[in-house]
Amino acid sequence: MCPAPTHIPRLRYRPTTRHDLDECLGPLLPPWLGLDEALSSAFRGLWWRLLGEPGITSTVMEDLALPPGQRIQGWGCGIALSSARARELELDTAPRAFMARQIYARLQRVDWAPMTDRELGQANARGEFCFFNMHYSQRHNDLDDPYVHSVINIANEAFRAAAGGYNTQAMYFETSVQGGPVMLAAGFRARPFADASSLAGLPPERCPMLFAMSRSDARASLPGTSVRHVFEHHPPLFHFSATQRRLLWLALFDDSDEHLMPLLEVSVHGLKKLWRGIYERIEDRMPGFFGDAAAEDEGKRGPEKRRQVLAYVRQRPEELRPWASS
Fold it and tell me: Origin, by domain of life (predicted)?
């Protein structure tokens, strides 16, 4: 394995795009997944379809100090599961090893599509769904290396940003035995597999390990760890539309119109209309939110309002999540 870089890193996290798949599905595809030939050949097409689905989370950790094609240092992804699917997988009763591989196999079926925005919104409002983090991987894994520590740190920030703000019932994370110390440091608790004996003899980098945390367990402990952080939740106030929420989420990472328009498939006029709808909804629900910015001229008002909105949703991620109470 190549040694970790020794330069001063410029690390950040952001949502995974289809342009990232070559890097993610190469050196960052975890060997412990144990994909068979059929699933391996379908994997790129599967992820091409999964990216952008409301029930899928996927982020990359990249180092902007490195050349293009070598920047992505970590990749993490997860899926929201309804209570019925969690029972089908026996997550609480008898979880089986290589659970992520089983989920990937199911996702190829037409009857096992990720949760829609409305389905996730209804489950979120009831607090009756869980997240299964299918895997997280890094290019470099020497836990004595300061650069690896920096990547783990930004990965924890990415996890909190991607998984926070939901009314989650439980959080599961499958990784390798080699990655176990990182999960324990993040606050997860190890969970045994029902078929753990079948893993005897596997090397640490190819042996899966399951971690979990329930909402009740998280709230019985003090804040401090990454997994405890994602169980902080408040009902959203503004109830933005799905398109407005997607705009706000993407704008947290690059709020330039040139970047956002192609991702949202809208024109300049369409993008302005989306922002205007967000401002109007906020002013309707919380008069005075924008303070003096509401009285400034049009040229200054728009950018200042955008800045205030993005600062707010960074602190209140529930506004970025689907919510469909009956």
Answer: Bacteria
